[in-house]
Fold this sequence. Notes:
The structure holds two protein chains of two kinds. Helix content of chain A is about 0%, strand content about 50%. Chain A has no helices and eleven strands.
Amino acid sequence: EAGVAQSPRYKIIEKRQSVAFWCNPISGHATLYWYQQILGQGPKLLIQFQNNGVVDDSQLPKDRFSAERLKGVDSTLKIQPAKLEDSAVYLCASSLEVTEAFFGQGTRLTVV
Amino acid sequence: GNSVTQMEGPVTLSEEAFLTINCTYTATGYPSLFWYVQYPGEGLQLLLKATKADDKGSNKGFEATYRKETTSFHLEKGSVQVSDSAVYFCALRSGGSNYKLTFGKGTLLTVNP
């Protein structure tokens, strides 16, 4: 079974630029999550989708972050404009409704 | 709100030593508890889980018991190997259908030969 796919693996941008990350969840998983993991900290949930609807985006900085999940499958997370403090690993995960979450390898973003 | 507190790292052990990583939690209701592991350069992998009080999760020689009375879920292994070197995260999932995971800050374990 293929796992959660994320791209790119690494990205370096200057502050005030925009960036987008892509995630392809495990086939059949209705729930998709985006987490932000800052160095030395545990992952923090940014947004959770159930199919293509948003379940929880309470910790998403909506003035600069946006996410969508078209057709209830792939998802993109965008940051515009980026700030230095956005440097982190962005993790995508998916799950069936009541099982554990499976994580991708993450995208490491460096904002300079 | 929900929160998870893990022992501060880093933890450095010699091969075959005994490992304990403490984890305590605060949550409403009856959460499920997890340990995730992150090997260098890789994503998070589920190591073990427990869904109700007194359950013991186990995998790859690691164990953790869900203790409701002490709100704890300590990770243990009797004899660590160099290949166990990784970051370990304790996490909880609050009750209900919203599968939101709350993580601790992680504990870096280094095992020396």
